[in-house]
Amino acid sequence: MIERGDVMPINFLKKERFTGSCKGMRYRMEKAEREAGDPETGDGGGKETVLRVTWWPEPYAFHATPDDQKIWKEFPFTEDGIISGVEWLNEQYRA
């Protein structure tokens, strides 16, 4: 099981990607940009910063693993987003 303490703090993630592994599952957390706005109304709001969390099966590194084997989800780029990302990774592992 991945714990919050296993992941680098938000200040690290502002500058670098973080990768780790846990019992056959590899994962990566990184700062990403996406279009902001409300998809239902079509209101554009420029870009927003999010935390993108990706996991894939071992044994290969991120770039050596085909994209169709990677699953990702975006969270707010905050401490709470990191906690939610860790919880999501643990849910994915148990599934």
Key descriptive features of the protein:
95 residues; 2 helices
Q: What can you tell me about this protein's structure?
A:
The protein is α+β, with helices and mostly antiparallel strands and 95 residues long. It has two helices and four strands, in the order αββββα. Strands 1-2-3-4 form a four-stranded antiparallel sheet. The mean pLDDT is 93.
Distinct helical segment count? 2
Profile the largest sheet. 4 strands, antiparallel
Radius of gyration of CA atoms, rounded to a whole number? 14 Å
Low-confidence stretches: none
Please report which band the strand proportion falls in: under 5%, 5-15%, 15-25%, 25-35%, 35-45% or over 45%. 35-45%
Sequence-ordered SSE layout with sheet pairings:
Blueprint: H1 10-13, E1 18-22, E2 25-38, E3 43-57, E4 71-76, H2 79-94
Antiparallel strand pairs: 1-2, 2-3, 3-4
Give a brief outline of the structure:
The protein is α+β, with helices and mostly antiparallel strands.
